[in-house]
Amino acid sequence: MNSEMISIHETATSVTEALDTRHSIREYLSQPIPEEILKRIFEKALRSPSWKNSQPWKVHIVSGGKKDLLAEALTKAALESTPRPETSWPESYPSDAKKRMFDLGMKIYGVAGIDRKDKEARDKFMLRNFEFFGAPTAVFITSKFDLNFFVGIDLGCFLQSVLLLAREEGLGTCPQAALGAFPDVVRNALTLPQEEKVILGLSIGYPNPDSELNRFHTPRESAEDLIHFY
């Protein structure tokens, strides 16, 4: 299982390149994203597959002052209360997955210059989720559907489409379950109906090319371990 450092501030010219080079970006330039680029990404992503063409997603794209106010409200909620997501976050994992998760955390903290034992620094780093890591735009994916395994698959297909299309445009992204941690805060800020569940979100923008953290490319298990032919 290897990791490497890869710069992804250039555009991707194929689906293969987008898949090979995409990773979560946690430091962004303040440069705003032109609205036509955001429209192109999310309108194309609507072609994502879903169960019986049910299309269980709604998308809310927040930039500028509205995004800044929402970041303040989410950060305040994170400091003063515990997460209350509308779909349960996983609580247990197989042992091999737990090892991968621990190893990843150690590597990311290392690249970010954070000592694993420094809880204050780790907590501050975690709070960056709610500041959208400085990205100029935040995106929230919501649904009025009853949440189940297959709706989750559909939302995952849509999210992956967005990540790859953003990579094609030279943008970085960070998909974040954390942005579904305080759904009432998001609902109030965006005046969403109560039945519209806030599932997750992502930060999107132009990666800071000088950031070592942005160059960290997360490792993957070998194909031989995970793919079997019969």
From TrEMBL:
<dbReference type="InterPro" id="IPR000415">
    <property type="entry name" value="Nitroreductase-like"/>
</dbReference>
<dbReference type="Pfam" id="PF00881">
    <property type="entry name" value="Nitroreductase"/>
</dbReference>
<dbReference type="InterPro" id="IPR050627">
    <property type="entry name" value="Nitroreductase/BluB"/>
</dbReference>
<keyword id="KW-0285">Flavoprotein</keyword>
<keyword id="KW-0288">FMN</keyword>
<dbReference type="GO" id="GO:0016491">
    <property type="term" value="F:oxidoreductase activity"/>
</dbReference>
<dbReference type="InterPro" id="IPR029479">
    <property type="entry name" value="Nitroreductase"/>
</dbReference>
<protein>
    <submittedName>
        <fullName>Nitroreductase</fullName>
    </submittedName>
</protein>
<keyword id="KW-0560">Oxidoreductase</keyword>
<feature type="domain" description="Nitroreductase">
    <location>
        <begin position="21"/>
        <end position="206"/>
    </location>
</feature>
